[in-house]
Amino acid sequence: MFCVTHDISETVAFDRVLVVESGHIVEDGSPVELLQKAGTRFRSLVEAEAGLCQSLWSGDRWRRLWLEAGRLTEREHRSSPPPGARHEA
Hints:
With 89 residues, the protein is an alpha+beta fold. The protein has one domain (8-72). The chain is built from 2 helices and 4 strands; from the N terminus they run E-E-H-H-E-E. It has a two-stranded antiparallel ribbon. Strands 3-4 form a two-stranded antiparallel ribbon. The radius of gyration is 17 Å and the shape is elongated.
C-alpha cells in the first residue's frame, strides 16, 4: 500500500517512509530509525508538527468541546487534548 499524507504524526506507525522534497526522495527508511537520528529531515518534520500542535492547543482562542455518550459539553482550557479525544472548534 502507498499512502501520501501531510499528517506527519500518522507516518510514525508506518513500516517505511519516503520524505520527498521538490520532487526528489531525500530520505527513505524506517520512521523509528529516522526519528532516532539527529538531523534527519523526517525528525525535523515530526518535531515541527508537534510544536505546531502544542502552540495551537495552548492558545486560548479555541473552544474545547467534548462529546461523550451523546452529550456535548464545553471543557476548560488545557495545554493539550485528552488522549484519544476528538475536538471540534
